[in-house]
Automatic annotation (TrEMBL):
It holds the Pfam family WS_DGAT_cat. Residues 270-412 form the O-acyltransferase WSD1 C-terminal domain. It comes from the Bacteria. It catalyses: an acyl-CoA + a 1,2-diacyl-sn-glycerol = a triacyl-sn-glycerol + CoA. This is diacylglycerol O-acyltransferase. Residues 5-154 form the O-acyltransferase WSD1-like N-terminal domain.
Length: 417
């Protein structure tokens, strides 16, 4: 039985090239303990893969477009491997190489790589899934279904929106002119990340204590969310690094917004997201004031449902040929947004793999042509893990960007004292 890819999934698959691999990463860092048994992990993954049906399917050309079909067999030994690494720098290097390698289209579009053990006893698991297979929320469901040891706590619902509360299509189109003015009517300066892209990748990570991020948000006169705090941390990092190189230009960030609805099949619902574009206020020197400005923008965009309106627009224009391509090109222009910053909720309770507690979870997504920096975050029960992924030829010293994010967080955190 063949199942055509959704238009969104097919478009994502078509973006893959010699320099864009199309997959996202979830990096699990285990607390110190006995080394994972590779064969035991393979057996566990094989036994549980049926709980995520897309994990046993491949993409084929069905003549009228790409389609999902059942793989003749899943060779778990090819999907679950081990790599040596002794310290965090070697770990980042291995992960960078994995992000630069394409997933094999002849196999299901996922891989699980054990990395380490490190000298301090920690070990990492890099889980890659093609973005056509899963977006951020369904990727977390893959972790829950296939990787983490079973636990009693309910996973985050994939459906975050009530389908009965969906606005009518007419109301979406009625407010479309204002949506376009808000989202695409304020281009920034020339993006410093508008550079030619190669297949090379470098990554760096930073942790933000989740409880303290919530406390910083709650301390503001108009409550800021954890996602608002994330945007402020990234914007603060960019201001610090760009000022170091001369000046901080006017820059916008694209913030993905989930459009999943309650009751959807977690493993088969495909990509269901849209976006809003927000100004990063890099001209603002005060980190807390920048947080308030970002929070106000996000609150306003949510109130008027810009993300859903844009989804309706691009869905309608997808079949309109040159006009649709023109509008999509405008939305993807690096002056409309210099980088994307995404955030997904991860496990809300302590989780483990092979008897080892997962201490930290990070995520990383692919940069794109003319967008050589990508920032992505994921939470667990204690931390918000923020991942910076770059083409190192276009954006060198990604570790310094992560260090600047730490400094930006500390500036926000100081307000709690």
């Amino acid at each position: 039985m063949t199942e055509p890819l959704s238009p969104a999934d097919a478009r994502i698959l078509a973006l893959e090239s010699d320099v864009v691999r199309g997959h996202a990463l979830k990096l699990l860092v285990l607390e110190p303990g006995a080394a994972l048994d590779l064969e035991a992990v393979r057996d566990s993954v094989a036994a549980r893969l049926a709980a995520f049906p897309r994990g046993g399917q491949i993409v084929v050309d069905a003549g009228d477009g790409p389609a999902w079909v059942a793989a003749p067999a899943v060779d778990v030994t090819a999907h679950v491997r081990r790599h040596a690494a002794d310290d965090p720098a070697e770990l980042r290097a291995v992960v960078g190489r994995l992000m630069s390698e394409p997933l094999d289209r002849a196999r299901p579009l996922w891989s699980v790589d054990l990395i380490g053990p490190l000298a301090d006893g920690r070990e990492a698991i890099a889980v890659r899934l093609h973005h056509a297979l899963a977006d951020g929320l369904t990727a977390v469901r893959f972790l829950e279904s296939v990787i983490f040891e079973p636990h009693d706590a309910a996973a985050h619902e994939v459906g975050l929106r009530d389908p009965d509360a969906r606005p009518t299509r007419w109301s979406e189109w009625e407010r479309m002119p204002m949506t376009l003015a808000r989202e695409l009517g304020h281009p920034g300066s020339r993006s410093p990340f508008d550079r030619p892209l190669t297949a090379r990748r470098a990554l760096a990570f930073v942790d933000v204590p989740l409880a303290e991020a919530r406390a910083v948000g709650a301390s503001r006169s108009t409550h800021a969310t954890v996602n608002d705090v994330l945007l402020a941390v990234v914007a603060g990092a960019l201001r610090r690094r760009l000022l170091h190189h001369g000046h901080a230009p006017r820059m916008n960030a694209q913030v993905p917004v989930s459009l999943h609805e309650k009751g959807e099949d977690a493993a088969a619902s495909g990509n269901r997201d849209s976006f809003v574009d927000v100004g990063l206020h890099l001209d603002e020197a005060d980190d807390l004031r920048r947080l308030d400005l970002l929070s106000a923008q996000m609150r306003a965009r949510k109130h008027v449902h810009d993300a859903r309106s844009l989804d309706e627009l691009f869905h309608t224009l997808a079949a309109s040929g040159p006009v649709g391509a023109l509008v999509r090109g405008l939305a993807d222009d690096p002056r409309e947004f210099a980088l994307a910053i995404s955030n997904v909720p991860g496990p809300r309770v302590p989780v483990a793999v092979g008897g080892r507690r997962v201490g930290h979870v990070y995520t990383s997504s692919e940069p794109g042509p003319r967008h050589a920096l990508r920032v992505a975050a994921i939470s667990n029960d204690r931390w918000l893990g923020v991942g910076f992924c770059v083409d190192p030829d276009a954006v060198p010293d990604v570790e310094l960007l992560a260090d600047a994010a730490h400094d930006a967080w500390e500036a926000l955190r100081a307000s709690l004292r």
